[in-house]
Amino acid sequence: MKDVFGRLSKGPHPELHRLLYAPAFDHDVREVLPLLVRINAAHVVMLEQCGILDAAEAAALLRANDAIAADPPAAPESSRGLYAVFEAELISRCGPIAGGSVHTARSRNDINATVARLRVRACLLRVAGDLLALQSALIERAAEHRASLMPGFTHLQPAQPTTFGHYLLGVAAEFDRTASRLLDVDGRMDECPMGACAGFGTSLPIRPHLVADLLGFARPVPSALDAVASRDFVPEFLSIAALAGMTLTRLATDLQSWASPAWGFLGWPDELVSTSSIMPQKRNAFVLESLRGRAAGAAGGWVSAMVGMKNTPFANGIEVSSDVVEHAPRAAADTSTALQLMTLLMRHVTVDAGRLEAAAGSGDITATALADALVRSAGVAFRAAHEAVAGLVTADVDR
Questions:
Q1: Strands 266-267 vs 350-351: parallel, antiparallel or unpaired
Q2: Which residue among 155, 277, 362, 377 is the active-site one?
Q3: Active-site residue, 155 included
Q4: Quick one: what percent of the chain has pLDDT higher than 90?
Q5: How many Å apart are CA 141 and CA 148, to the nearest integer?
Q6: What's residue 27's pLDDT?
Q7: Cβ(15)–Cβ(65) below 8 Å
Q8: d(Cα 374, Cα 366) in Å, to the nearest integer?
């Protein structure tokens, strides 16, 4: 395959190909090619509608597009990446006129920006779906345990009476805001970069709105430069995935504490716990530890993305256009796994209502209610009521 563009008279140096292009090729065939053929099909249809390609040329290109999608090209010995191979395949199959015209009014810049949006939107929807499934499980358990009395905790100490259902609804409320943030990001990402070319548009009479519609976007990105220079939606998605992970780890920490023999509030069947290789009595809630580890991945991806984008020019560039985007699928996979693990645990959790209620009967957790009663029935100032009840508790402890 001849891999020469513009002023270049040679293909990439063998070491450059080995270190940079070759490792990325298989990944791009798997992750990028399915999106590239979608983008190419939409672009070809638009060019035909605008009279830039005739119907026969467009039909040949679309047939070649389908053939490449069905039988992806193998990695050549030397190339400048997937797009170079893709375009060479189109020229080989459709001839230099049709194949050489397909790149009219587009650049790898707006193609890559569109690929990035499609990939991150898929990540976003994956996490959102798993988050909604967990919320459903939390709400189901909350309804089941709306009257399961237990002590509420502050600073890891029994504080006031509550129910297990009340606790679960509180966690679900935080997840609800996370889901809302994901939907907000998706709305801002609902713009297609195609037509921006290298960030400066084109003088050719194209119809970016048609390409946007064919690819499932609401509209084109209004600014051509913003379309190819920006990947701010990547750290935005990662930050929200990190928030989901943070809430997951806090929930996991409470559940693991309450599953310990010290409390014995809840547990799981044997299929969802492990044991020790040396201590035969152990029933370890190891899944909670595993999901805490997975839930941290998005936070690491967010930090890496922010550092990777810092001090880069506001234009298309590899650090921003390609490298930063790769954090999103990894973070989505980790977050999705953590959410699914927690959903599995919540659907199979067993709750010892007797232990919960017994714990609620100790620790003087009705002391605040007594102080409130003094305020309500006797008109005592709250601080005076608070001190009086504290004295009763102290006397009872010292007795």
A1: antiparallel
A2: 155
A3: yes
A4: 73
A5: 11
A6: 87
A7: no
A8: 13
